[in-house]
Write a structure and sequence with these properties.
Number of helices: 3
CATH topology of the largest domain: Jelly Rolls
Strand content: 35-45%
CATH architecture of the largest domain: Sandwich
Radius of gyration: 23 Å
Shape: globular
Number of domains: 2
Amino acid sequence: MTSDDLGYADYQPLPADLPFLLLPDLADRRLGAGVPAAGDEFFAERENLLRPERPVFRPHTFGPKGQLMDGWETRRRRGSTAHPHPAAEEHDWALIRLGLPGTVHGLVVDTAHFRGNHPQLVSVEAAALPGTPSPAELLDPATEWHELLAPAPVRGHAANAFPVADPRRWTHLRLRQYPDGGIARLRVHGEPRPDPAWLAALGSFDLAALEHGGRVEDASDRFFSPPVNLILPGRSRVMGEGWETRRRRDGGHDWVRLRLAGRGTVRAVEIDTANYLGNAAGWAALHAFDAAAPGAGDPADPAAPGWSELLPRTELRPDTLHRFVLPTCHPATHARLDVFPDGGIARLRLHGSLA
């Protein structure tokens, strides 16, 4: 056990059954998210809030301002000589630019390693603005902010989860902590909603890509890494950035079902096994489903009439980008990738255009 593992011995993790945790993190830096401004970051920088890896703590690592913390930490607020404590409404804030605009279903405010220096309360507001607004524009009194999370208590050294029920599309968040303190990470789980005008201008694009509105609906296995990695931007750099299943011993096979960005026609497919050497999937097959077709049935049923074969079972090579031009093209709303018998796939690209 490493010293970092020991640091998590008394950590309070998330409940395993929260539905929104299966949705992608719209504030993932790998998707282009950022923290353009914060009111204070005296002890630890605001950018740490969106780092994808779990927070680490190395005791007795001091800089000129104190213990180095892997998170966002502000200085201690003070009142006056007569009233030394800050007023109840005083707070620190950070602006979050979502990597993918979308609907927020749940928030995770992680205070890992912040024990006596975590905030008492947190709140989150959301805004929807076009383009790339500056911090000054976001902070302009004319900007409309809508409350997603009213001030709520948080525990120290814990993952604090908050479901959100709001169907609107957002581009930016404002995180507030009362009155001050440290937050290690912020996760914003939801459904991407890209700009339709942008997709129309592209014409042909990856219909499965998370950034274009694609989504993983379900998968047979999530043991080593989540299937959403299949549709992240860019190529995977290491094995852990793809989707890898456990070793099967039952004679079956693994699969992942995707909902495409919209009803579209897939013309070309990329299946990338980058960084999977002795554990790449041996074969893959691809099927498409058109929910708009009469009598299509339920896409969750692999035997439903709406499923048709796009790519027959095809042998894969380890650590290789495979490209296939499809001989026939049919409209589809969903896709299912079957891998035989198990193993890892780094990326899946389904190139085409909206119907």
